[in-house]
Specification:
Helix content: 40-55%
Radius of gyration: 17 Å
Number of helices: 8
Bound molecules: shikimate-3-phosphate
Strand order of the largest sheet: 2-3-1-4-5
Largest sheet: 5 strands, parallel
Order of helices and strands: EHEHHHEHEHHEH
Structural class: alpha/beta
Strand content: 5-15%
Distance between the termini: 16 Å
């Protein structure tokens, strides 16, 4: 495989779309193709929090998770954004059942020291990360945003048995969430790719062509 070269000294490619659209696997393929790092926002948050996303939802509620998302995006995208040690996980999170002390492990994949203020990288967003207007504004300002669009059938197929891992899908609501969010993904995107018939590698190839 030939490595591609980006036209800019610094480009952040943000992958957005509904749960199950393939953001993480496309992120990995694109990382290999472009030879730049990929950060999976959900994993970044989990490492910082020292617990899984279902546990964050269960113990602290959705708002606390969304606050972590906003802080993580700020750290990663905004030059001079909050350093990882002192932002989203410093101190207890607001919790539905009282304060929840979170541990502060250093984030293994992307530490503060090598936060790439001058270099390019890919960020695979969580499916809801773009919903807060302040997050969408950060993403629009700092990233080239790609919406990986897929039909409900494809999304369900990809999610398969994993639906239980997504707190927001536990009690149904898939169709309503998808309908509500699709216009938000579209509005934030610089490019939209219909992914139903494509492999992650093919999608990565299309993205590489679009941005280089
Ligand atoms: C969410 C999507 C999940 C994760 C969390 C909330 C959402 O990420 O961030 O469960 O609101 O759509 P994936 O899109 O990677 O599943």
């Amino acid at each position: 495989m030939t490595e591609r070269t980006l036209p800019f000294s610094r480009m952040i490619v943000a992958l957005t779309g509904f749960m199950g659209c393939g953001k993480s696997s496309v992120g990995r393929e694109l990382s290999t193709l472009l030879g730049i790092p990929v950060v999976d926002l959900d994993r970044y948050i989990e490492e910082k929090a020292g617990k899984s996303i279902p546990d964050i939802f269960a113990q602290s509620g959705e708002k606390a998770f969304r606050d972590l998302e906003t802080a993580a995006l700020s750290e990663l995208l905004v030059p001079g954004g909050h350093p990882s040690e002192t932002s989203c996980c410093a101190g207890p999170l607001p919790s539905d059942d009282g304060p929840l002390p979170l541990m502060l492990p250093r984030v293994a994949q992307f530490q503060r020291g090598d936060r790439p203020e001058q270099s390019s990288f890919i960020v695979s967003l969580g499916g809801g990360a773009i919903l807060r207007p302040e997050n969408a504004a950060m993403i629009r300002e700092h990233c080239t945003c790609i919406f990986l669009r897929a039909t409900p059938e494809t999304l369900r197929l990809h999610l398969g048995g994993e639906q239980g891992q997504r707190p927001l899908l536990k009690d149904g609501g898939f169709e309503a969430l998808l309908q509500e969010r699709t216009p938000v993904y579209s509005a934030a995107a610089d490019f939209i790719i219909d992914t139903d018939t494509l492999s992650p590698m093919q999608i990565a190839g299309i993205i590489a062509n679009l941005i280089s």
